[in-house]
Predict the structure.
Amino acid sequence: MKTLTSLFKSNIREYGMLIALIAIMAFFQYATDGILFKPVNITNLVLQNSYIIVMAMGMLLIIVAGWIDLSVGSVAAFVGAIAAVLMVKLDIHWSLTMLICLVIGALVGVWQGYWVAYIKIPAFIVTLAGMLIFRGLTLLILNGEAVGPFPTEFQRLSTGFIPDFFNNEGFHITTILIGILLSIILIVLDVRARKNQQKYGFEVTPFYFFVLKNAFITAAVMALCYLMASYKGLPNVLIVLFVLITGYAFVTSQTVVGRRIYAMGGNEKAARLSGVNTPRLLFGTFVNMGVLAALAGMIVTARLNTATPKAGVGFELDVIAACFIGGASASGGVGKVIGAVVGAFLIGVMNNGMSILGIGIDWQQAIKGFVLLLAVFFDVYNKNKNV
Amino acid sequence: MSDVILEMRNITKTFPGVKALDNVSFSVRQGEIHALVGENGAGKSTLMKVLSGVYPHGTYEGDIFFEGKECRFRDINDSEKVGLVIIHQELALIPFLSITENLFLGNEQATSGVIDWNKSISMTKELLEKVGLHESPNTLITDMGVGKQQLVEIAKALAKEVKLLILDEPTASLSEGDSEKLLELLLQLKAQGISSVLISHKLSEVSKVADSITILRDGAAIETLDCQKDTITEDRIIRGMVGRDMTHRFPPRESNIGDTIFEVRDWNVYHPLHEDRKVSTNINIKVRKGEVVGIAGLMGAGRTELAMSIFGRAYGTRISGTAYKHGKEIDISSIDKAIANGVSYLTEDRKAYGLVLIEEIKNNITLTNLEAISDARFIINEPKEMTVTSEYKDKLNIKCSSILQLAVNLSGGNQQKVVLSKWLFSNPDILILDEPTRGIDVGAKYEIYTIINRLAAEGKGIILISSELPEILGVCDRIYVMREGKIVGELPASEASQEAVMKYIMTQEVAV
C-alpha cells in the first residue's frame, strides 16, 4: 500500500499550491493575531478578490491555448466606465446596462480575437495595444473624472448578500444549509468518480486517503460557511463565483471544446491537422475572456460605487500571476481552473494579510513577485526531477 | 593523389532498435571529389554526422583518422578545428544578417571582443571572389537566392580554412544553372587541393564530377567505384544502390481490389509563400477499394505537399482541382470536411504534427473524433473513451503502461501506432500514410505493414508515401512516381523493380 508521503509526492503538482495556500493562511492568521479569519475579513477577502478569480478563468483558457492577454485590466475599466455612463448619465435601467456591458465585453473579445486568431498577430502585441486602447477610451468616456454613485441594485452585485429565509438575527441559517448541501454534492460526485475509476480497473488512491480528502474538503466548506454565516451570510458575488468555477471546471475537463483547447495549446499544428478549427477556437477563447473581463469590470465598479479612470490598473498582472502560480504552463497546454482559483486566493490572502500587517505597497509588490517566481520554480523543478 | 586525407575504419553506430551503420569503412584521398550515394535511410547522413562530431566520440564504434592522426571529435567545433567542414542540406545561415556577419559567425575577426569590421569586410571580399559570388558583403542573406546562399556557405567553410568539405545534397534545391556553377566551383576547389565529399541523389552530377563513388546500402558500405579507372554508368550505380535481399521484410499480402474509391483530378497547388511557384502540377491519381497505392520519389519531390493539399488544403495556396469519392465529387476544402468525408492523412512528422506529446495516449487517439465518445456530442463520456482507446491499444499492440501514459514517453514505433489509431478512430475510407515507418525499428515496421494489409483487406483505399523503395515495392499494388511536383510515372507493382522506379526518379527528362 502506498504511504501518505509517496502519495503526496506523486500528486505534488496538484496539492502543492493548496498546501502553500493553507500554510500562508496559517502564517497570516498567526501574524495578524487572528484577524485574517474573522468573519468580516473573510467576507472582505472574497469581495476584494472576486474580480481576479472571474478573470483568471478566462485567462487560464487563453494561457492553456498558448497565449496571454495583457488588456484585461483596461477592458474591465472600460466596461466599468460604460456602465457608469449608461446608468448615471443616461439613466438606463441597471439590468439593461449589465446586458449591454456583457455584449460590449464580447465585442472587445471579437476585436482582439480577430487579430490574434485570423490575422495571426501575436496576442502579446494585440493585447498590449488593447491595454493602451481601452485605457485611453476609458479616460475619454469618463472625461477624466470619477462617475457615480450607482443604483443600489447594481451595487448589490458585489456588496450584497443572499437573503436569509429564516430571518434569524445574527446567524445566517440559509448559508449553513447551502454549505451542507454543497458538501453532500461534492462527496457524492467524488464517490461516483471513484467507483467509475474502479470499474475500469484504474488505480485509485487508498480508501483512508479518500476519506481524509473528503473530510478535509467538507470541513473547509463548512468552516467557510460558518464564518460567513456569523457575519452577513454568503455574498452574492460568491454565488456568481461558485457557478462560474463549477461551470469552467466542467467545461475544461469534461467537454469537447475544453479538450480541444488543451490539444491546441499542447500542439497547435497537430490539433489543426486533427480537424480542430484552431483559429475559431482561439477566437472563442478571446471572446470568452472579453465577457469575463466585462463582468469583472462591473463587479469592481459596483464595489467602489464609482467608475474611475484609474480603475483596474495592474489587474492583468495579478490575474496572469494567479494562473501561473496555479500551475499553468507559459508554453500552453497545461493548467487547471481550480489551480487558477487557488492561485488567485493565494495572491488575495497575501494582499489582504500584508495590508492588515501594515506592509507598504512597495514591499507587497516585491513579495508577490518573489512568490510568483518561487511557485513557478517549484513547478519547473518538479517537472525536471520527474523526467 | 594517392595520399589518404580521411580514413574512417569499421564505423558502427546503433540507435535504439536500429543499426544505422554496420562496420562501414570509408576513405577519401587527398584532392579528390568523393561521392557518397545511397537510398534515403542508407546511412549517408549518419556517417557524416559521425565524421563531423555531431555524434561525439564514444557514441559509435570504430576509428577516424584525418591526415594520418586519430581524431576523437566531441562536437562540430572539434572537427572544424582540423579543417573538416560539413554543409547541411538545410542551410545554417541567419537570414537577417549580412554575408559578412554570417561568414564570421562564431569566428568573429575581433580583438578583445570588439569586431574589426574593416578587416572582416575585406576578408569577405576575398572569399566571395574565390567562390565567384559577386555580391556586396553587406547584402542580407534573405535577399539572395538559394544558389547564392549555397556559395556563401562554401565561403564560410573556406573562412575556416577547410581541408575537407562535406556537402549534403547541395544541389537539391538549386536550379539547373546554379547546380552547374556549384559543381564548377567544386572542381576549382579541387584544383586548389581541397578535397570534398559530395552526397547526392542526382547521379548525373555524381558521374560528372566524382573521382570515386562509395555506395551505401542499409547501413553498410557496399562498394567503392573508381571513376578514373573505369567509366561508371548511372545504371551501374543504381544497381549497387538497390540490389538487396528482400525476403521476410514484408508480410505476405493478398490483394482484393474493387472499384475506384477516391480520385483526384487536375490538382494544382502553389507554394504558400512564393505564390508563383507551383508545387504540384496537373496531378491525377486514384485509389481503388482495397488497394495500396504507393507514391515514390525523393525528398522534396512534392509528395507531402500534394498529400497535405488534398487533406483539407492543409498546405499551399491557389489550389485547384477536384476530388471524387465513389465517383461523386466531394468537398475537402477544410480539414474537418476532409475528415467528415472519410479522408485522413498521417503525417510524416509525428512529433511536430501528429501528436500532442504532453497529453495522454487516450486524448491523442480521440482528438480526431471527440464527438463520437461524447454525450450530446459535447460532454465527454470518459468511461466510453477509456473503453474505445483500450481497444485500439490491444488491436494495434501499443506497448504502454496504460492509455493514460503521456505520448512523449513512448518509443517511435508506439507513437506511430497512436497516430495511426487516431486516424482509424476518425473512421476513414481513404488513408494517406506519409512515411509511416520513418524512424522506427524493423519489428515495428513489420507491424505497421501488417496493419496496412489489414486495412486494405477491410476495403479501405490506402495511399502510401515512402522514400524507401523496398517498402513501396513490398507493400503496394500500384506505384506512382513523383518528381518536381509532377507524376512522372505509374506502374503496377508486378512490373515494378527498384531499378525501374529508380530510373523514373533519377532521370532528369520526363521519360514516360
Notes: Chain A has a mean pLDDT of 90. The radius of gyration of chain A is 21 Å.
